[in-house]
Design goal:
By secondary structure, this protein is of the alpha/beta class. The protein is built from 9 helices and 10 strands. Strands 2-1-5-10-9-6-7-8 form an 8-stranded parallel beta sheet, sandwiched between helices. Helix 1 crosses helix 9 (about 300-315) and helix 7 runs parallel beside helix 8.
Length: about 325
């Protein structure tokens, strides 16, 4: 199995200041992976910059321009940072970095689709799954995973894409992007009720997309065993019958028990277990093709360990 790891130091240039979504998340992770000799086991990929046309697969021109404008204003003398909303800081280089975050996942899609027996982990930031078609929110500027799904269809002609979102928070932006679409199966397990407030079981899509949005809300008291049982059932009841041509993972690690924004109590091994379940489904449905992109995960000590567990299961 060839494992592609998408990373660039450009992702450290999205300056969020004193904020949970900090560049230290990736700096600490890459230092750990290097120390553990993971960089000798994977194939590193440099991300490319996504084009305007590719970002527009999901986002309105108005939203794209708003991100660019806020970044430009942040570059003015004494301006500091701007904000898309109260949670989402934008610095001088954030617009450019966000294009490379989206483009990094597209780079992975190209490689995985064109290389037999391969998958990929994209260590990108800013994250994306809260970014809605018309505005960014929740630390997210552009929706990296949603753009990648549409890109796989438009560029590579894939018919059906499954997105598995196991971030602690509901992927409301991704859900909105494919709400009326029966060619993308969006599945989210998340703490509920919690930020951003969406993601009830009743939210299942609309029109021809009815039934192709699957939300599994869980409480903060759920046990690891019950959580994994729900995840296994999701793979068996929804993902395998859908028979996707590619599986994308919105890989958030803020469900980890020590995460400062978390509250699900998941263990490091649980992320390996979920990855193994996705691997099994991908092997059956789509020649093992998986592209995973980092979303949340804010415990600087624990995040590298969770990512390593995920990476180990992708490589096994």
């Amino acid at each position: 199995m060839t494992i592609y790891l998408v990373y660039s130091d450009i992702y450290l240039e999205h300056d969020t200041g004193q904020h949970p979504e900090t560049s230290q998340r990736l700096a600490a992770t890459m230092a750990y992976l290097k120390r553990k000799k993971w960089l000798e086991r994977v194939t590193l990929l440099d991300p490319r910059r996504a084009t305007m046309e590719e970002i527009e697969y999901i986002h309105s021109r108005k939203h794209i321009e708003s991100v660019r404008k806020v970044a430009e204003e942040a570059a003015l003398p004494a301006a500091g940072r701007g904000y898309l909303d109260g949670d989402t800081p934008v610095s001088e280089k954030s617009y450019e970095v966000a294009l490379y975050a989206a483009g990094g996942v597209l780079t992975a899609v190209d490689k995985v689709i064109n290389t037999p027996k391969s998958n990929s982990l994209c260590l990108v930031r800013p994250p994306g799954h809260h970014a809605r078609p018309d505005y960014g929110m929740g630390f997210c500027l552009f929706n990296n995973i949603a753009i990648a799904a549409r890109y796989a269809q438009k560029k590579h002609g894939l018919k059906k894409i499954a997105i598995i979102d196991w971030d602690l928070h509901h992927g409301n932006g991704t859900q909105e992007a494919f709400w009326n679409d029966d060619s993308v199966l969006f599945c989210s397990l998340h703490r509920y009720p919690y930020y951003p407030g969406s993601g009830s079981e009743a939210e299942t899509g609309s029109g021809k997309g009815k039934g192709f949005t699957v939300n599994i809300p869980v409480s903060d008291h759920i046990s690891s065993r019950e959580y994994l049982d729900k995840f296994r059932q999701l793979m068996d009841d929804k993902v395998r019958p859908f028979s996707p041509d590619l599986i994308l993972i919105s890989a958030g690690f803020d469900g980890y028990k020590n995460d400062p924004l978390g509250g699900l109590g998941l263990e490091i091994a649980d992320f390996a277990a979920m990855t193994q379940m996705v691997r099994a489904a991908a092997d059956e449905c789509c020649a093992g093709r998986i592209v995973s992109a980092l979303e949340g995960g804010y415990d600087i000590q624990g995040l590298p360990l969770c990512i390593e567990a995920h990476l180990s299961a992708l490589a096994s």
